[in-house]
Amino acid sequence: MQFRAVRFLPASIGIAAAALIAIGCASSSSPSSGSLTLYSAQHEAMTKAFVKGFEAQHSIKVKVRYGEDEGLAGQIEQEGSSSPADVVLTENTPPLEALSAKSMLSKVDSSTLAKVPAQYNSAKGEWVGVAARETVMVYNPNLISASELPASILDLAKSAWKGKLAIAPSEPDFVPIVSAIEKLDGEGAAKAWLEGFSSNAKHYNDNEGIMAAVDSGQIAAGIINHYYWFEAIAEQGKSKVPSKLHYFGNQDPGALVNISGAGVLAGSHDQKLAQEFLAYMVSKQGQVAMTKSGDWEYPLNAEVPAPPGVKPFSSLEPPQVGPADLGDGSAPLQLMQTVGLL
Amino acid sequence: MTPAAASLAIRGLSKSFGDSPVLSGLDLEVPAGTLATVLGPSGCGKTTLLRMIAGFEFPDEGEIHLGDRVLDDAGSHLAPERRAIGFLPQEGALFPHLDVAANVGFGLARAERRSGRVEELLALVGLEGLGRRLPHQLSGGQQQRVALARALAPEPGLVLLDEPFDALDAGLRAQVRADVRAALQQSGATALLVTHDQEEALSLADIVAVMRGGRIVQAADPQTLYYAPVDTEVAAFLGDAVLLDGLISDGWAETVLGTVPIRGAAPETGSATVMLRPEQISLADTLEEDRVTGTVVGMSFFGHDATARIVLAGASDVEILARATGEQAPRVGQTVTLLVEGSALAFAPPRAGEEEEEEEEEEERDETTATLPVAS
Amino acid sequence: MQSAGATQRVTVSPRLRWKRLGRGRPPAVLLALSAAIALLALAPVGFLLDQTTASGWSEVQRLLFRPFVGRLLTNTALLILVGTAACSILGVGIAWLIERTDLPGRRVWAVLAALPITVPAFVTSYSWVSITPAVQGFWGATGIVTLAYYPLVYLPVAAVLRGMDPALEECARSLGYGPWRTFFRVTLPQTRIALLGGMLLVAIHLLSEFGAFAMLRFQTFTTAIYDEYKLSFDGVGASILASVLLIVCFALLVGELGLRGRGRYARVDPGVARPAPPARLGRARWAALAGLFALTGVSLGLPLVTLSYWMLEGASAGLDLGAVLAACGTSLELGLGAAILTTLLALPISILVARHPSRGATAIERATYLPFALPGIVVALALIVLSLHYLPALAGSTSLLLLAYATLSLPLALVATRAALAQAPRVHEEVARSLGARPLVAMARVTLPRILPGLGAAASLVFLATVTELTATLLLAPIGTQTLATQFWAKASTLSYGAAAPYAGLMVAISALPTYVLTRRLGAVVHPVER
Q1: Do B99 and A1 touch (CB under 8 A)?
Q2: Alpha-carbon dihedral angle through residues C302, C307, C309, C315, given to the nearest 10 degrees
Q3: Total number of domains in chain A
């Protein structure tokens, strides 16, 4: 039996490959008018809520690229003017400050900025605060009694806490805490605290890991943002989540409020649409949609109540550290590298 | 059906692989329609020569002509597929994914494949009816025959065979050899076969070319080569040779075996190396006066004949090889009389200072040629 | 006989004349193509070097000699030493039990012993972690990846043991060597090349494994690189770590070549004249059986049972069938595209190495092995940055993702295509040419039919590697594109085990059977550093 068709095989494979590559090129993300591209570092639940609400209102398709805070900002910087991103939504403010410092964000409409208290917006007006999250300590009541709870986050560096803590150094949420301590108590104190904390703590990849470890009793306590705990209860039920939250309050660095914000890229192809998306996010409908999405972060629009069950925003007693103080996060990163966490 | 057999002419062919020269100025002429053999030890470059004629290697220097076509010269190289030269590699190389008929018909145009030519060729090599078999279902000898039929199918002017009988059992070899020779003769093509087996070369070919050091040392019909070798190495390569020191005068040589007539070209006077074949030395157990005598120190019995090693009385450092028929073979330890029949050849003596015997020298050379890289 | 005056010069086409001037060296087109493909493979390495040198020596020093890197090196060194040793002992032991003893049910065990390689390591880790977090940390991680990767040693060693000539051992026994001594002095050295190759594969897999170690909370270079990326996109820190990783892999490659010596890789001969008589286990067979049962249970049974449990859980909790099917479709498409592209890219290089061997050809081929050792994330990072700078049209497109896949799995395809070409020796093409076929026609009629199964194997290998690829996809997938792997990762890293299960299940379902068939078929030949 001879393979006569064999003659055509190389040619047909070549054509097929060429076709595939051509299709691939064609499907590259080319911005088209009538659609919006969102780079989101936020959780899927919240992002989807915003996207669906906006799409319903404007009949516009929104494409989402998910990522992590710094990663997304870095990618936008690398992509430069050819970046398809129109709007960027982050979990914490340092990446927005970094982009702002590189003049990559457009000024946000003042009407949008006005919907949110000024201290939660960019000082330069280049991004707007969308949601807030409170730093908390989650602990396992079977392993730590109420009397043992620390008054300040700085206490966690003491040797009494050896082996009882969890740390997730690569979590973008952790960096602002270090910044806050640096701002309030100076670099030396921050370094000492980091050294003490990391020697007391076991490493985890992220906040979800810390939550799971505390719930299962592997670890006594860890520092996370409040909404992880509420999400865990909502998903698994109170019986499966024995851990409790401890709020530091008292303007302790451990009571830091992290702001999740959004900005419009200066290189966006549709500035108007992008601004409208921002406006939607801080509007009453947008913020209500957010609180109903299964994400338990605090809405920053004063007209919208917080999700039921969370500690009232006004009672949080956060330290006087604002987004401008937290900067772009490069200093704490270097500190963590020096200490050996990264 | 007789194809236009072409004559092969090679002039000054040279090829080196890296620093090692494999062919150095090789010349060879093969008349049309003859079966020629290139005989040489393993690793001497025979396969390279064949591959160059087929067009798979590029010569560094030299020319190859086939009939009136130029295959290779200083300015051109004809691609293998345009040369119409049949090629039978050492391992047969049948296409394993095609059956016998498809293999044989590979070089034919589609119409020709169906015309019955394939069956003709299979009959030519004695394999009628095996067209549907697959190569791995055939024996070694059958595979070689299919490979030959395949090579002959497009009626090439020249067929090249690379040690085609090497992988076969000894008993099979003779039969396959005869069949291949018959097929080649019937097809009328010019054929060039390379081998290291001198028996094969002598029995098969019209012309034998002895290859050594990258060149053809002597090319002639088998009888000439055997009885008139051009030097002692060729002599020793083609069969057993008895080499003696001798003093030449007037067409006769004084040797330890007595006075022997010299045939062919020889130095006029002086010392020379005298060559005899063992079958020229006859043994008798009657001891006669003033005859050369010796003691048998070893015997090898081959069935059809025997070879005796004899040490001469009076010249204990010389060992002579002689043949005897099986029945009359002397025993070890027996004293015998030696008688030389026929004439001997005389060659220039080895240069002063070279003490090695001819056979040792040739063995050494075999070793060095064996280490030359041979293009696979 | 001819005279000079009557000579007819046959017209030689200019192309032939040009080829002749090359004195038989490989066609320039082939060489150029192969070099271009090798450059693609070297691009990530170049990117790393560029990053490292661009940031200044003091910055490099600071990042290279920080305590974290020391910890990573220790972790990685321990992981490689213990993991490779464990896989070797397990692999050789099982190979010997199955191929050389009278163990009951050998054929079944042979199948079961190879199966763990068909389940991606991060799915195995996910199964274990969902049962108990106690598996996290060094010992748990090493144990789980040993169970996942030991077939990489078992398969080639078993193939060698199967095809080994018993005459060697019989000679040793006749010279007075007892059975254990014979095993260590005669049998094991015969498997040296296969064993070293398998160990190298295990080590490289361990170095570039991401998902499994991330879930098992064990920090290696690869997880650290991903963390660094999370914290700064093109950060020098990530590149430094990747450079160290590259050096370690390079050292492993060189070490393996050195240890192997000048031996050729033993090819399995299925037609061995006389199989070795099996060793009798006697009462030890019960212990062996118990051990094998336990091994299968732990390496295969437990992960699959857990996966099924979570799939049922996830289904009852509500299954987003649309998303699952969409991700499945995307994975299949990407896998197919990568398979075709990579096989095509592998062809010129394999032809170059098989038909025109030379130092240059070997160097080109070896160059393509380097990205195999890099984690997908480094390759992806390099490609993103390079495309942004030089080919913006390509950035963010599926083609770039396909290129990343090709870079990562080129050695896999090369190994299979080279093995296939070895089945079609050059002499067949030469005979075809002597019969009048032009070079390309000869290749198509004679070589191609022989190597098609091998090309299919190459394509399948790449397909399977692509369907389960995670980190490069996370970075390079065009916006909105989700594959089974990325969806699985998104769900598993938020501890939604039930939601992650369908994706894991589909990945296992797609890859299990073909992986098994391929490893069975290629067995000892799936090795990136074959001569």
Answers
A1: yes
A2: 180
A3: 2
ipTM over 0.85: no
Q: Is A6 on the interface with B (CB under 8 A)?
A: no
Q: Which of residues 471-490 of C touch A (CB under 8 A)?
A: 478-480, 490
A127: distance to nearest CA of chain C, Å? 20
Q: Which domains does chain C have, with CATH numbers?
A: 26-267+284-525 (1.10.3720.10)
Using the Cα atoms of residue C373, residue C375, residue C380 and residue C382 in order, give the sign of their dihedral. negative
Are B81 and C433 a contacting pair at CB < 8 A?
yes
Shortest CA gap B125–chain A (Å): 23
Residues A266 and A117 occupy one common structural domain: yes
Pull the structure tokens for residue C103.
């163990």
Same structural domain for residues A40 and A86? yes
Task: Answer whether A15 touches C (CB < 8 Å).
Answer: no
Neighboring chains of C (3 or more beta-carbon pairs < 8 A): A, B
B contacts of C433 (beta carbons < 8 Å): 55-56, 79-81
Evaluate whether B279 touches B323 at the Cβ level (below 8 Å). Answer: yes
Please answer yes or no on whether B99 and A3 come within 8 Å at the CB atom.
no
Query: Please, what are the domains in chain B?
Result: 8-227 (3.40.50.300), 242-351 (2.40.50.140)
Give A211's Cβ-side CA count (13 Å radius): 23
Q: Do the Cβ atoms of A179 and A325 come closer than 8 Å?
A: yes
User: Looking at chain C from residue 127 to 186, which residues have their Cβ under 8 Å from any Cβ of chain A?
Assistant: 133
Instruction: Render B177-204 in DSSP notation, one character per residue.
Output: HHHHHHHHHHHT-EEEEEES-HHHHHHH
| pLDDT by residue, tens only, chain C of 531 residues | 333 333 333 444 444 444 444 445 677 788 888 888 888 888 888 888 887 788 788 888 888 888 888 888 899 999 999 999 999 999 999 999 998 888 888 888 888 898 888 888 989 999 998 888 778 889 999 999 999 999 989 988 888 888 777 777 788 877 778 888 888 888 888 888 888 888 888 998 898 888 899 888 888 888 888 887 777 765 677 788 888 888 888 888 788 777 765 544 333 344 445 677 788 888 888 999 999 999 999 999 999 999 999 888 877 777 788 889 999 999 999 999 999 999 999 988 988 888 888 888 888 877 787 777 677 777 887 887 788 778 877 777 899 999 999 998 888 888 888 878 877 888 899 999 999 888 888 888 998 888 888 888 888 888 988 998 988 898 888 877 899 999 998 888 777 788 889 999 999 888 877 777 776 665 533 433 222
pTM for this predicted structure: 0.75
In a domain, A321, yes or no: no
Show Cβ contacts of residue A21 under 8 Å, excluding neighbours closer than 6 positions.
C341, C399, C402
C431 to B67: CB separation less than 8 angstroms, yes or no: no
Chain C contact present for A209, CB below 8 A: yes
A158 and A232 assigned to the same domain: yes
Using a CB–CB cutoff of 8 Å, tell me whether A2 touches chain B: yes
Contacts of B221 (CB under 8 A, 6+ apart): B206, B207, B208
Reading the block at residue B182, the tokens are 């018959």
The answer to whether A11 contacts chain C (CB < 8 Å) is no
Q: Is A80 on the interface with C (CB under 8 A)?
A: yes
Q: C430 and B80 in contact by Cβ < 8 A?
A: yes
Whether C143 and C303 have beta carbons less than 8 Å apart is answered as no
Matching residue, tokens 């001497």: B44
Cβ contact C234–A78 (<8 Å): yes
Distance from CA of A3 to the nearest CA of B (A): 9
Calpha distance A288→A252 (Å, rounded): 30
B326 to each of A297, B285, B300, B302, B308, how far by Cα in Å? 111, 15, 10, 8, 11
Q: Which domain holds residue A67?
A: 35-131+258-311
C106 interfaces chain A, CB cutoff of 8 Å: no
